[in-house]
Specification:
- Strands 1, 2, 3, 4, 5, 6 and 7 form a seven-stranded antiparallel beta sheet that branches.
- The protein contains nine helices and seven strands.
- The protein has two domains: 224 residues, no CATH class; 121 residues, Sandwich (lipopolysaccharide transport protein A fold), CATH 2.60.450.
- With 359 residues, the protein is an alpha+beta fold.
């Protein structure tokens, strides 16, 4: 790595750390604290439990601060270099602006990869543990209703059941529109669908449903009015073990979408969450491309200017991001384009701005 590359990365390191901390304090913590205050008043969480829940919620929000912090870091670094005429000196020494963009783009890719790893390896287990705390507190408080149940059960390392339901009421022990995929030797063998299920005396009794045999030479189905399923997991354990999309890894969410499609359920929101797991971290790279030429227009005192520009750009980016998500949910845009179009447009603008800068 050349001296100029190390110099640029050092210039970006401090503003990046400052950006993460600033955006966490300004935006993220406020959202988490608001949620915690509501849970404390509604469910009676103790201070220790509330503090633990705060820490568990934090990684999921930090994922959104990395792109903004990257934007701040590059804007501030290039703003200072431009304000102190160091970019002019580098140009006089034969170093073109486009050459300076290379380490910035590489840093953006590294941050995108790190953010993806955080979103895949840290956020799901933290969200799972946080939801366990909330569900347990809800159960004690008498509020134990969950929507969109997904449960993956294994025995001796092999999948034995996949359970889906639109709704679970732990208090009454009732499942609404459950679907159970029964596995045989690691492969789906039978699919059971029912209008509802009731927990009675240590087992689930399903009503008004159908069993579909998947491995037969010809598809075979049998309907039932009432059927006792070989499924001994009680309601409270389903509530503890079931996962929301935010609690799943990329692979788990893809599997969930695949079986939700078999149930003829809408998967738009699930697919949006799936694509956002990659598109949001990748915003680190596209913001780095855009920020480098924008930073050249800054001057002394660029820390405050860089933060202001980053807030404006980040606000516009996330407004468009949310708007396209709504458009996708209305069926006017595919989840892929809703998730990736903001990045594509931002990258195109960044490349265009870099092309306009004199060599």
């Amino acid at each position: 790595m050349k001296i100029v590359d190390r110099y640029l990365l050092r210039e970006m390191a401090g503003p990046f750390a400052f950006g993460v901390l600033a955006f966490v304090l300004l935006f993220v913590s406020a959202n988490i604290l608001f949620e915690l205050m509501e849970l404390v008043s509604k469910l009676g969480l103790g201070l220790w439990t509330a503090g633990l829940l705060f820490l568990l919620r934090l990684p999921g929000f930090i994922v959104y601060t990395f792109p903004l912090a990257t934007l701040v870091a590059v804007l501030v670094a290039f703003g200072r270099l431009s304000g102190d005429s160091e970019l002019v000196a580098m140009h006089a020494g034969g170093i073109s602006f486009r050459r300076l963009v290379l380490p910035v783009a590489a840093a953006g890719l590294v941050l995108a990869a790190a953010n993806t790893a955080l979103n895949e390896l840290v956020v799901p287990p933290c969200n799972r543990r946080g939801e366990e705390i909330v569900r347990e507190a809800s159960r004690r408080g008498g509020e134990a209703v969950q929507e969109h149940i997904y449960l993956h059960e294994e025995s001796e390392g092999e999948v034995v059941r996949l359970i889906y339901a639109e709704r679970l009421d732990v208090g009454s022990g009732e499942l609404v529109r459950p679907m159970i995929v029964w596995f045989e030797e690691g492969q789906p063998g039978v699919v059971t669908k029912a209008k509802r299920g009731v927990w009675r005396e240590g087992h689930w009794e399903l009503f008004n449903g159908v069993n579909a045999l998947l491995n037969a030479d010809r598809p075979a189905t049998s309907s039932f009015e009432s059927w006792v399923a070989d499924f001994p997991t009680p309601p409270w354990l389903i509530a503890r073990q079931s996962l929301a999309p935010e609690e799943m890894t990329y692979g788990e969410l893809r599997e969930y979408i695949r079986y939700a499609l078999r149930q003829n359920r809408s998967t738009v929101e699930l697919e949006l969450t799936l694509h956002h797991k990659l598109s949001i971290p990748f915003a680190c790279f596209v913001f780095a491309l855009m920020a480098a030429p924008l930073g050249m227009r800054s001057h002394r005192g660029s820390s405050s200017i860089g933060m202001g520009i980053a807030i404006l750009i980040g606000f516009a980016y996330y407004v468009v991001w949310h708007y396209l998500s709504v458009v996708a949910q209305q069926g006017h845009l595919t989840p892929f384009w809703a998730a990736w179009l903001p990045n594509i447009v931002t990258a195109a603008v960044g490349v265009g701005l870099i092309g306009r800068v004199r060599k």
